[in-house]
Backbone:
């Protein structure tokens, strides 16, 4: 289940008065939380949260309501891709000033684990056993509770505090690829297409639709793959397009605020993520 679709800062973004964010203020578009998913195992009543966004409170409440309280309020584990604000800062809500949780497993790669252990306030979550770090090994499959397995692998990105992970999570029946943040596909050691062939659904970074969305920024400093580049990459493998669900939209990206653009790209057999959608 999709719990959030926006880039780290959410939608609308702080301080933005452009047409993209004015849509929300004028009541023409709904606000959107940063990227997050719930992976559910109904047979065991267990579920796992992918990314701990700054809006984790609202997302957990939404999940409970959407599932009729079928699952426990707090997840049976949390998977983190990297140490950028929209992907891990929600962990603070698990601390003693708030939920004061007990030993929630947090799955991440080694540098991310080291960052959490060695830097406050995250280190306090570890010391007080609010969370329990489960360090993953890149490119190795890990059995987690219930019948799910998870494989993390690194992707190129702006790695100031940690590496950046992508995940393949699933079971023998269905597998999901989560790539909310990456630099250009051409920088991947293993082609994206190889991973797409291993999974049923792939949630892919769609931060920007166009390189002109941020005229005051050097787009080379934020080299996310543009949506047309992602679609173009699959021209030789058209059947794989049906597996793709675009996610992690910047507030400037029309796919988060322009219904005509959403319909246009959906018609190209590329899924556009929406909150509450179940895959």
Residues:
């Amino acid at each position: 289940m999709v719990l959030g679709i926006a880039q780290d800062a959410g939608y609308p973004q702080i301080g933005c008065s452009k047409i993209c964010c004015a849509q929300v203020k004028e009541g023409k578009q709904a606000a959107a939380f940063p990227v997050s998913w719930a992976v559910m195992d109904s047979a065991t009543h267990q579920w796992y949260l992918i990314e701990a966004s700054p809006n984790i409170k609202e997302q957990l409440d939404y999940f409970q309501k959407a599932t009729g309280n079928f699952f426990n309020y707090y997840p049976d584990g949390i998977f983190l891709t990297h140490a950028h604000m929209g992907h891990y800062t929600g962990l603070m809500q698990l601390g003693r000033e708030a939920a004061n949780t007990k030993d929630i497993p947090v799955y991440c790669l080694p540098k991310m684990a080291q960052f959490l252990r060695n830097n406050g306030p995250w280190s306090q979550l570890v010391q007080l056993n609010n969370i329990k770090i489960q360090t993953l090994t890149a490119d190795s499959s890990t059995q987690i509770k219930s019948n799910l397995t998870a494989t993390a692998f690194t992707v190129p990105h702006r790695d100031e505090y940690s590496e950046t992970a992508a995940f393949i999570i699933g079971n023998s029946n269905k597998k999901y690829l989560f790539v909310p943040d990456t630099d250009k596909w051409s920088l991947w050691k293993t082609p994206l297409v190889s991973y797409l062939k291993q999974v049923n659904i792939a949630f892919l970074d769609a931060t920007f639709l166009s390189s002109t969305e941020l005229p005051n920024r050097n787009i080379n400093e934020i080299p996310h793959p543009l949506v047309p580049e992602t679609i173009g990459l699959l021209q030789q493998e058209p059947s794989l397009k049906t597996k793709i669900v675009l996610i992690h939209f910047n507030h400037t990206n029309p796919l988060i605020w322009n219904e005509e653009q959403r319909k246009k790209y959906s018609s190209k057999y590329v899924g556009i993520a929406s909150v509450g959608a179940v895959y």
User: Anything to note?
Assistant: The chain has a mean pLDDT of 95. The two ends are 7 Å apart (CA to CA). The first strand starts at residue 2 and ends at 4.
